[in-house]
């Protein structure tokens, strides 16, 4: 089969196809969380001619007003986005990437991080004309990404076709792992943080200088973890609670003293929101914060992208064996470093 779209779905799923053409199938459904979802299945025009390729992007742009806030586009777009999406023995100018990038920008679609194969198509030539490209991909709105932080997009090996099958799993279950301790920059905004660290560091212990240093670090870590749970608390929960009180207070102001209480509560909310923004900026590995409107949702999206990118689903050994089970991957890492350094 070549040059078209074929869509199938399970019997227990209700799918409403709102638009169909040779290059796009657009459907609405409700996901397992009960959230309205739009999915566009795309087959980009194989002809590099600007007019024909642009017709597909125009179709896609016309779907913006039809799509839900949670929108996924997936398929063979027949277009690369940058030089990193292509491997060849010759270096030719990339055509069509600028128009494709502009279309994604206008639609507010983000590229989903994929694991597995770097390239999803190859021409199969056995000489210097050999080419590999990433043509198949999945895109989504920020709302969908934030609602599905556990998504996994897999590019499978190219075997029977010249394309790689791609699989998008919106609810991939990662095995539980204890989260390592990390110092949160937002703690510094709390007046009690400095004193806590000073008191924790004053712990007296016996042994070598290195052992005493290790014990001090361990004690500070434990005290900060306990303080974060019991004193500093969950910032997002505190914000919601104070916002609720603030809303109730604004609707019942009767005397001048109520204005002072309102002002203090507003100041507390602003401080908490600043702490929350610092926390998410740190998790996003971002060293800058845009002044003005809150950027918390932006940093949350960066964090979720980075977490997906850091997931290891497959490892190929030096002998060429492909490991996919988590236990096998962990054992291979341990064995490899044990042989290399011990």
- SSE run: EEEHEEHEEEEEHEEHHHHHEEH
Mean pLDDT: 81
Reported by name, the CATH topology of the largest domain is Deoxyribonuclease I, Chain A
Beta-strand residue percentage: 15-25%
- What would you call the structural class? alpha+beta
Level of helix content? 40-55%
Tell me how many strands there are. 14
- What is the CATH homology-level superfamily of the largest domain? Endonuclease/exonuclease/phosphatase
Overall shape: it is: extended
CATH architecture of the largest domain: 4-Layer Sandwich
CATH class of the largest domain: Alpha Beta
Short description:
This protein is an alpha+beta fold and 342 residues long. The chain has helices spanning 50-62, 97-107, 142-147, 193-201, 209-232, 235-250, 256-283, 296-309, 326-341, and strands at 16-20, 24-30, 36-43, 71-76, 86-88, 110-111, 114-116, 121-122, 131-133, 136-140, 152-155, 166-169, 315-316, 322-323. The protein folds into 3 domains: 16-169, Endonuclease/exonuclease/phosphatase (Deoxyribonuclease I, Chain A), CATH 3.60.10.10; 185-307, no CATH class; 312-342, no CATH class.
Describe, in plain words, how this protein is organized in 3D:
- The protein has nine helices and 14 strands.
- By secondary structure, the chain is an alpha+beta fold.
- The strands form four sheets. Strands 1-2-3-4-10-6 form a six-stranded mixed beta sheet.
